[in-house]
Protein: G-protein coupled receptors family 1 profile domain-containing protein
Amino acid sequence: MEHVQGIARNQWSWIIASCEPLSHQSPAMWICMRYNETDTVVDFQLCHDLGLILSVLSLIYLLVCFPLGVCYNVLLVVVNLSNKVSMTMPDVYFVNMAIAGLVLNLVAPVELLGSTFTRWHAWEYNDEVHITLLILFNVSSLVIMYSTTLLSLDYYIERALPRTYMSSVYNTKHVCGFIWGGAVLTSFSSLLFYVCNHISTKMVECSKMQNKEAADAIMMFIGYAVPAVAVLYAFVLILRIRKESTPLDQDSARLDPSIHRLLLASVCVQFVLWTPYYMTLLVHTIAGAPGYINNGHYLPTYNFVRCVSKLLAFSSSFAMPLMYRQMNKNFSGKLQRLLRRLHCRDRSCPHERSAVQQVVT
Structure:
């Protein structure tokens, strides 16, 4: 009799995709189990509603945010690289973030069109594809967070010591290269996980490295805690120097005042969009894997919040270039110069001839 009841309970199980994969298995599933008749109705309805909401949000992102992100990120990179002479230190950091945003734009449709995020999925991907997407996502997140952090610190240096060239465009380009290298090295743990999936003779050693909670703790500390403390410290220094009126405040070598508003807005937007994702990593690190949660009623809610937080992180790939386009007053002039050059093609443009004549005279 108990065996029959157990089979009957299993027939009421409702499974939809989750945000986290299980080791050596296909992507994990949201399991809302029916322990009794009352709990079954609640869990089934909850899973159904949350799955539908997540599917709608994913499709809205793909239809609206994804094309905007690709267009504005490409536009930001092309316009600035075509006007290298007029690029400033903040422009280099925003180009770096735009490139990282393009990597996120590459990852987003693959994940959002999978069974993880939508019921009307276009494909299923295996562990190898998932780990590759995870590495690209982690590298992009680290590049975005540290570019924002170093932009804050370099802005303070430029405000305090405008003629030392410590935060010059040349130095900033090298710093951005180090950011990408450091991000790749930090994601090395995910690469080890990928390699271990293909090693059969060393499974005991590999199982010791497959500690998801430890990997999340590393990402939480390096990817969020350190940048948050550094940005807070930089803003304290910036506020202190803004209160002090010095003769250098009239120096023409200083950055445009609008850069301060752009910096403040970019830092706030980045941390607002990325904080939920890193908080879910913190919860996962403290509470352990979601599969260990005894109360099945809270499991779909946990996974729903985890997926929505990742969707917000993807949203930074279009929010940042859009904000840069609206708040940087020099961007329109650079874009117009680029369009004029494309219009003239191989011919010499009139505005270029006049500029050359002014330089000669």
